[in-house]
UniProtKB/TrEMBL annotation:
The keyword Signal applies. This is Germin-like protein. It comes from Prunus avium (Cherry). Disulfide bonds join 27-42. The gene is LOC110744858. The lineage of its organism: Eukaryota, Viridiplantae, Streptophyta, Embryophyta, Tracheophyta. Residues 1-21 form the signal peptide. InterPro entries: Cupin_1 (IPR006045), Germin (IPR001929), Germin_Mn-BS (IPR019780), RmlC-like_jellyroll (IPR014710), RmlC_Cupin_sf (IPR011051).
Amino acid sequence: MPQYYILFLFSLIFFSSSSHASVQDFCVADLKGPDGPAGYPCKSPANVTVSDFVFSSLAKGGNTTNIIQAAVTPAFVAQFPGVNGLGLSLARLDLAPGGVIPFHTHPGASEILVVTRGHITAGFVSSANTVYLETLKKGDVMVFPQGLLHFQVNAAKIHSSAFVSFSSASPGLQILDFALFANNLPSALVGQTTFLDLAQIKKLKGVLGGTG
């Protein structure tokens, strides 16, 4: 029997046997259930409505009257149940003049940023400590690989904004400054592990709400 004919028969059998597999169109999050590595459990399709697939809160800028003079409005699974299990989510960044999104990481996702107003200086640091830095204008796009430290700073004298997309419905977030100075890790240990001056550490803890 010719080899190509055997391959054809094998393919036919494989696809015939798999054609009866259950295919699920979506898994709208049941936010009352536990959030595990695979996401939230699915809401019953009988309880799913079009509102689960529509999110309107990114139309309005966030409140930038805070210590970083910036705001992040997320459309993650907790706010937008329809993205559950789809491997994507969104957020809006708003930066007042002088605003900054400090060094942070997303352990669960890569990020793409699209500038929609003003100018934003953005960058990330690779695991080899190479810095990739650019000042972006309206319409420019930059990608930040998963897990790498990155930041955004308003480089304009006006309000700047951007939309960001993530390759996960729950990208996760850890802000470096808050990880160091907004908890009860003893200041002496922070000093030992960062080589920072103890007085400066205590000052930053005071600003960010840390103790110790």
